[in-house]
Amino acid sequence: MAERAPVDPGGPVHPVDTAGSVDPAGPAGPAGPVDPVELADPGEAAAEAALRPHTLGEFVGQRRVWEQLSVLLDGSRSRGVPPEHLLLAGPPGLGKTTLAMIVAAELGRPLRITSGPVIQHAGELASILSNVTEGEVLFVDEIHRMSRPAEETLYLAMEDFRVDVVVGRGPGATSIPLDIPRFTLVGATTRAGLLPGPLRDRFGFTAQLDYYDDAELAVILARSAGLLGLALAPAAAAEIAGRSRGTPRVANRLLRRVRDWAEVRGGGTLDLDATAAALELYEVDARGLDRLDRAVLDALCRRFGGGPVGLSTLAVSVGEETETVEGVVEPFLLREGLLVRTPRGRLATSAAFAHLGLDPQAAGRLL
Ligand code: ADP
Fold this sequence. Notes:
There is one protein chain. This protein is α/β, with parallel strands linked by helices. The chain has three domains: about 5-210, P-loop containing nucleotide triphosphate hydrolases (Rossmann fold); about 225-280, Helicase, Ruva Protein, domain 3 (Orthogonal Bundle), CATH 1.10.8; about 290-355, Arc Repressor Mutant, subunit A (Orthogonal Bundle). It is built from 15 helices and ten strands. It has helices at about 40-50, 65-80, 95-105, 120-130, 150-160, 195-200, 215-230, 235-240, 250-265, 270-280, 290-305, 310-315, 320-335, 350-355, 360-365; strands at about 15, 85-90, 110-115, 135-140, 160-165, 175-180, 185-190, 205-210, 340, 345-350. α7 (about 215-230) crosses α9 (about 250-265). The protein starts with 12 loop residues before the first strand and ends with a helix. Mean pLDDT is about 85; it is low at about 1-10 and about 15-40. Bound molecules: adenosine-5'-diphosphate.
């Protein structure tokens, strides 16, 4: 995303959009789930950048995608031509930006970073494209949020390596076709289903990233701890992994919170006790639910007796944007089997009542 500090991927990095050009606190737009981490301060972004793997070898998990990318990159290197455009799909924090940077680094090519929400006019994209160099990797994060006119410009560039530059205004405007060097577009999206067919079809390959299992997250945490110079006990790594919602970004963030607690309150030891105490302080429960997740679940179970209740009513009752509840909270609760979506609204499962320590019968009578 725009506010992330780019890491040197092996060639020059051109962050096309300046930090802050996307309003990080603004609405997610019609299609965008809000990643709460994207709202974090720039310090968090820098801390995150410091933990990014730089090579495919350092990238943990996602074995299928890993193999697919490895073949793609080897093929490109041996033929001496840039790889086909590739689309990285999956929820926030699973490594899409990291992989885009790795692709550029592995190919020894420059990387240019931009994102869908900042490309609202075809002209903005044309100006980015007319500056790409041979073999450059152009990373467009949140590509599903690009404007329609910009998409059309992108189709031409992806397929024919050409942009139509419009000169002049009004009826006298003419469009001059400009050949551009062969580049590789790496698109990232949290909502592959929202991409128009013609755009999806122009990617040579789509990599679908999945949530990580606890063992993979423990490896990521051990690596991060090493980079931060921390002695993380294996039991603590396993505990943090279990509360990380299958997401490396969350795992690394929780690690930093445990480190903070251990340094200030715990004598510097990152063990199981420090982990439990720190995560209790930061209100991350044993299953990885945070304050907002629990507030939603609590409202659903207690106030609405388990549902069914409409999404917007649920969001209002916890004082949150509908997009945040739908895009951030719900996917996790669904995945955990705590909530189900029905045509009549959201329903809590018996596991949700159990997680909150409630009796479904008694809770129903609270209505
Ligand atoms: P996305 O672009 O999908 O939102 P990022 O690529 O920004 O996610 O990754 C978020 C953080 O998680 C980064 O700091 C990165 O270091 C870490 N991370 C993601 N995937 C991995 C992985 N497979 N191995 C190690 N660290 C990872």
